[in-house]
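USER:
Try writing one entry.

ASSISTANT:
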Amino acid sequence: MVNVSVKIEHPKLVKLLQLAYSAEKAAAFAYIGHAGSVKNPDEKVAIKQIEMDEWEHRETVLSIMRQYAIPPSRYYEIKYHIIGRIISASCYVIGWFMPYYITGRWRDKYENGKAVDASGTLLRKHPFNGVVGFKASLVKENPRFARAFTAHLLRFALARELVPADSITIVSKTAKDDFKLRSLIREVAFNNHPELRSIAPT
């Protein structure tokens, strides 16, 4: 277990966590406005679920920050609070424009009147129908997406492209924790990679 008093001496990673924490609030606010601007009850429910996911993500990031004594950024909190509220309010004022370009417009039909086909098959083996089914299909491929996310995070932490030698067993270590975001970030931050040893716990 990681000592809660351990601090991450990695400014870029700290900034990334602070930014992620505050930006999740802006996203949640945007979805509140998006849900309020649509009339279809089913659409409202689906968009509301996305909003709740954003708040859950924010709590997850905060728990990681607390574990490593990283305070929220007052600057980011104010900045993204304002951005989120502006986007949310704009959904009511200019209709489809903000949801479409900022959070994505919910559509049942195209402009030509043809119904939107929200079905498909993920990776040629997981059929889905609608956003809920698509999300369920993604969950079935947790290891694959965990590997992709970890690679992106590791590129950011190392500030360079990855090479075969960077293939650290991060994903396999987090499998028992169901590849939770908290575990993936912890393993990236505290693995034994030579370029990241400056932030490893002592």
